[in-house]
Task: inverse folding
């Protein structure tokens, strides 16, 4: 196997002799990886939270909000219901409700919530 030009490969004994090799751009130290993961988590947390139904909202809308946050955000950051038209949500809830293992009554509650706050 050929090595890319300019990359020095260190033999297992090189460490004991104090030799080093050129670092690849993808060769991160453990601390750098931790910092990168923390920054990624911080960016994830910057996503705007979906609207919270008022206390007097219909029970299915309130439960739909709870399910939306509990189930839908397992795979992705929270989506704003207004990102899609009300007519588009049934197809989306049917499609992704399978992945989230939503029961039919749970799908109806999530749908009630997202349609309440959609375009």
Result:
């Amino acid at each position: 196997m050929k090595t890319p030009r300019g990359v020095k490969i260190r033999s297992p004994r090189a460490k004991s002799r104090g030799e080093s090799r050129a670092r690849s751009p993808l060769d991160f130290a453990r601390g750098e990886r931790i910092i990168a993961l923390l920054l990624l988590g911080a960016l994830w947390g910057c996503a705007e939270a979906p609207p919270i139904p008022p206390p007097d909202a219909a029970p299915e809308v309130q439960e739909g909000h709870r399910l939306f946050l509990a189930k839908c955000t397992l795979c992705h950051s929270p989506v704003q219901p207004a990102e899609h038209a009300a007519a588009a949500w049934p197809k989306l809830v049917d499609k992704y409700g399978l992945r989230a293992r939503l029961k039919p009554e749970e799908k109806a509650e999530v749908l009630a919530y997202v349609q309440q706050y959609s375009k």
The CA atoms of residues 8 and 21 lie 5 Å apart. DSSP finds five helices and no strands in the chain. Residues 14-45 form one domain. The radius of gyration is 24 Å.
